[in-house]
From TrEMBL:
The gene is trmD. It is found in: Cytoplasm. Keywords: Cytoplasm, Methyltransferase, S-adenosyl-L-methionine, Transferase, tRNA processing. GO terms for molecular function: tRNA (guanine(37)-N1)-methyltransferase activity. Its EC number is 2.1.1.228. The keyword tRNA processing applies. InterPro entries: Alpha/beta_knot_MTases (IPR029028), tRNA_m1G_MeTrfase_C_sf (IPR023148), tRNA_m1G_MeTrfase_TrmD (IPR002649), tRNA_m1G_MTases_N (IPR029026), tRNA_MeTrfase_TRMD/TRM10 (IPR016009). It comes from the Bacteria. It comes from Rhodopseudomonas palustris. This is tRNA (guanine-N(1)-)-methyltransferase. S-adenosyl-L-methionine binds at G113, I133, G134, D135, Y136, V137, L138. PANTHER family: TRNA (GUANINE-N(1)-)-METHYLTRANSFERASE (PTHR46417). Belongs to the RNA methyltransferase TrmD family. One of its GO terms (cellular component) is cytosol. Residues 236-248 have a biased composition (Basic and acidic residues).
C-alpha cells in the first residue's frame, strides 16, 4: 500500500502547494506517495454550511464544531488504524523520531484547525493526537500539516535515497548538523576551512564532530543536555529533572 496523507481542512485549495514541487512533488507525481484533501465544510449540515460557533463560556473567536468535524473524520475511513493527528500549537512538539514512525506507517489523517480552536469533545471522541511544529502560533494548521508531510515524505523509500539517510542520521543522533562549504574556494575574502580541503578524512570527521558539538551547545542547550550520557564511573553526568521554579 502506498503511503498517503489525508488532510481535513477548510482550505483544500492550499494543497498540494509547496508539496507539489521539488522532491516531494516529483514523488507525488510518480505515485511514491498520495495526498488526499477533504473539505471539512462538506460535512456541514445546516443550510448556511456553518462549521464553527461561538465558544461556550464566552471569549473571542470561533470554535470548530465537534459534530461537523467528527462527520468529516468518519467519512474518511472510520475503521482504519491510521494515526489521526490534529495540528495545534498546544500539541506535543513534533520530533524527528515521530516523523520516522509516521513515515514507516500507512500515513496519517491530519486535521487542520482554524479559528480559536476545536471543540475538545471531538479530539477526545476520535482520539486525535495533537501535534505542534513549534512554539509560535500560525493562523491555521495547514502550513504545519505541510511541514509534517514534507518531513515524512523525504524519508519514504526512493524519495531522497542516500541524502536523507545522512542528514537524518546527524539529526537523529540528537545534535545539529556541522556547517557545509563548496566552491569557490574563496568567497568575499572567506576561505573554505583548510581541513576540509586537506584530504585527511580522519581530521575532517573530527573537525565536523567538534563543530556539531559546539553548535549544539551554543544553540540548543536543551538537546545538548539530552545527549546520550557517557558512562565514566559513579560520578558520571546524569540527567536531572529540573525542579519547577516557583515565583515568590
Ligand atoms: N496551528 C497553529 N499554530 C500551530 C503550530 N505551531 N503547530 C501546529 N499547528 C499549529
Amino acid at each position: 500500500m502506498t503511503w498517503r496523507a489525508t488532510v481535513l481542512t477548510l482550505f483544500p485549495e492550499m494543497f498540494p502547494g509547496p508539496l507539489g514541487v521539488s522532491l516531494a512533488g516529483r514523488a507525488l507525481a510518480s505515485g511514491v506517495w498520495g495526498l488526499e484533501t477533504r473539505d471539512i465544510r462538506a460535512s456541514a449540515t445546516d443550510r448556511h454550511r456553518s462549521v464553527d460557533d461561538t465558544p461556550a463560556g464566552g471569549g473571542p473567536g470561533m470554535v470548530l464544531r465537534a459534530d461537523v468535524l467528527a462527520a468529516a473524520i468518519d467519512a474518511v475511513d472510520a475503521s482504519s488504524d491510521r494515526p489521526r493527528l490534529v495540528m495545534s500549537p498546544r500539541g506535543r512538539p513534533l520530533s524527528q523520531a515521530r516523523v520516522a514512525e509516521l513515515a514507516a506507517g500507512p500515513g496519517p489523517l491530519i486535521v487542520c484547525g482554524r479559528f480559536e480552536g476545536i471543540d475538545q469533545r471531538v479530539i477526545d471522541a476520535r482520539q486525535l493526537e495533537e501535534v505542534s511544529i513549534g512554539d509560535y502560533v500560525l493562523s491555521g494548521g495547514e502550513i504545519a500539516a505541510m511541514a509534517l508531510i514534507d518531513a515524512c515524505v523525504r524519508l519514504l523509500p526512493g524519495v531522497m535515497g542516500k541524502l536523507a539517510s545522512s542528514t537524518e542520521e546527524s539529526f537523529s543522533a540528537g545534535l545539529l548538523e556541522y556547517p557545509q562549504y563548496t566552491r569557490p574556494q574563496m568567497f568575499e575574502g572567506r576561505p573554505i576551512p583548510d581541513i576540509l580541503t586537506s584530504g585527511d578524512h580522519a581530521r575532517v570527521a573530527a573537525w565536523r564532530q567538534a563543530e556539531t558539538e559546539a553548535l549544539t551547545r551554543a544553540r540548543r542547550p536543551d538537546l545538548w543536555a539530552l545527549r546520550p550520557v557517557q558512562i565514566t564511573g559513579p560520578k558520571s553526568e546524569s540527567r536531572k529533572t529540573p525542579k519547577n521554579k516557583t515565583d515568590g
